[in-house]
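Table S2 (continued). Query chain:
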Amino acid sequence: MVFDPHKPVIAQSDHTILLEVDNPSFVEARDRLALFAELVKSPEHIHTYRVTPLSIWNAAAAGATKDEIFGTLHDFSKYDVPSNLLIDIEDYLSRFGKLLLEKSGEDLVIRCSDSALADQLKLNKKIAPLLLQEKRPNTFCVDPAHRGELKQKLVKIGFPVKDVAGYVEGDAYRFQMRDTTLQGKPFNVRYYQEQSAAAFHQGGRAEGGSGVIVLPCGAGKTVVGIMSMNLLQTQTLILATNVVALRQWRDEIMDKTSIPEKDIAEYSGERKQFAPITIATYQIITYRKDKEGPFPHFGLFNAQNWGLIIYDEVHLLPAPVFRVTAEIQSRRRLGLTATLVREDGLQEDVFSLIGPKRYDVPWKELEQKGWIATAECHEFRIPLHSSVRLDYAAAENRSKFRIASENPNKMKVIESLLERHQDDRVLVIGQYLEQVRDISNKLKCPLITGQTPNGKRVELFEAFRTGEIKFLVVSKVANFAIDLPDANVAIQVSGTFGSRQEEAQRLGRILRPKASGKTAHFYTVVTRDSVEQEFATKRQLFLTEQGYSYDINDCRELFPDFVPPAV
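Corresponding output:
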């Protein structure tokens, strides 16, 4: 057995990979592992990754080869890489492309690489009903209406489909990119934005046209969407998280292209219009009068001959939208996200219905090049306030989490941090309405929640951008796409259990590069020795994967005179 103590990786036969943090090769190894392995946990000294079929298929779709993956393992492993791990990786890689969905004349067919695989499909009770007649050996006709459903089911049995059946062109819509913005500033597409759009488009070949681009918040994912529109020159439907994000898309499109406002329509709870470029909210798409009723706005997906559908923040895509997406596989689909992590476990559906990951870039790489702000992450741990200690002890776990999240002692930490950052633009972000209302009242700061009318939201965001107000309290609406380029401090007082995607979104609110060059600060205030602290550790996983480290502090380091309540 080969042993090299200077290398940072231990690859194990159970598909886990251990990575030593305190090793000179840590950063390079982390970035190369992230291509094909998922981060599972990240305590101080050893990070644990896991190789899964989906992680390998995404790597394969992004162009990773067996030699590249094996090379990473051999270059950084202390010991010999277990043979079964190498065999399984090779097997996962080989499965990507064994099934080919393509056009044969007027027919949509699925072609199997061999007769054994064809027999497996014919005998599978969930897949066989989706196959029509066998057109020729190992090749079955497929109803185009079942294109998405078939891809979903095949991923679940471990055989991802390579879909090269192509797409409808959609109605043409011609426009040009601007050289200067409406404000007269030079507009230059960044190298990774251009590469992202090209990776999605694939030169117009059938291999492209569907997939997900993963870039940090603040890195300009909207520009990637606009560049993809420019490559296709077709009518486009864009789905956004809320009305504020919808209107930011509209403003960005007009700022960066020749598309006039009259050709951009809003389809939301407030307006329902159509134009060559139509932007809708997920809320209106998933609206229905009752839980068992139909979704009356699903018809939007076929209301016009769209040549492209863009799913903004695809990691937040509501489950009902997957259903309608399964029915429109003949239209090009672009997903944009800061993280492929989904708390509902539907990553496989993103892969099969929106498309595989086409492009990804480490956050720290963009930070080093100045495309996103340098950020420091801090966690302050505080004791539970004596007034709720007995309630916490008697509560069930879910209630324990809320009691710890709303710990009254957090107010003192917030006040101290605001004093420290009185010259900065600060967002205070919380999960619970009662908590954020209380903070807003005590600080006499404006508050934005889901109940705040859109007009008022826009007014407050604009006042924050101009510096008229420096502190803003926001509920979980801050998780979604809001453009606050001058925000450079976020104080997170509560969140959604161990949500990694939420952590990424909230940090993203302060990552736009600052004209002043200021470092961004992301604070999380956590109740010590509580279930909230346990979930906070899970939330940090995604940021650790991107190269951020958390500075863990006891509250007494922030204010030495803090006296914990007596036990």
